[in-house]
Amino acid sequence: IPSILGIFSLFAGPFLEKRSKKKPFVVLTIVLVNLFRTAPVYIPYVFAKEYYLPVFVIMYCIAFGINAILAVAFNNLYINSMEKHIQAKFIGLRSKINLIFNIFFPMIFAAAVDMIPEEKTYIAFTAMFTCAFVFACVEAYIVNKLEEPETKKMDHKDINLKNIILIPIKNKEFMKLIYIAGLFYLTYFISGSFLNVFMLKYLNMSYSVFTLGIT
What we know:
Blueprint lengths: L1 H4 L3 H9 L5 H16 L4 H4 L5 H29 L6 H29 L5 H24 L16 H9 L2 H31 L4 H8 L1
Helix pairs in contact: 2-5, 3-5, 3-7, 6-10
């Protein structure tokens, strides 16, 4: 779902380039994206079992459809809000912090889940997803405090959805790269999904070992 709905990022360019203020949109979408990404954990508390899958798919489609546009808008705001002479250092530091969090926090949470009795495992997941949404709201609050520099609206006629699609298609070398990368990621995501199911369902791995494996 995230990969397929990434196509919505095409709409971000024409939408954002014509707006001088992007911060209100970014703050709102941070909350919405993370609401729909974390809300599926509450589905069993609200809906009957036969509705689990369709409601989950709808929520995830909404989340990652908006996220495709948010990613472009957030990076634009993020870069423009920094002094040019510190941009590279700041982005490098951000990448290092993200790497540390992405390695250690999932393993810590997985270890915590393994220590909880099996009948209370879902409650633990609910608590974690709720905490994730709270942190997302904190992120939105911090972004709202950024001083957004004034940017000019782009009135160029060549900035439209048609040209955004057609110009890359006409570049043969670019399209060769896209075909190769597309084939790789298609097989990668399909095999990755089956591997996750295999490790949890058939090998009965603990969440700690599973998280270590995918990390």
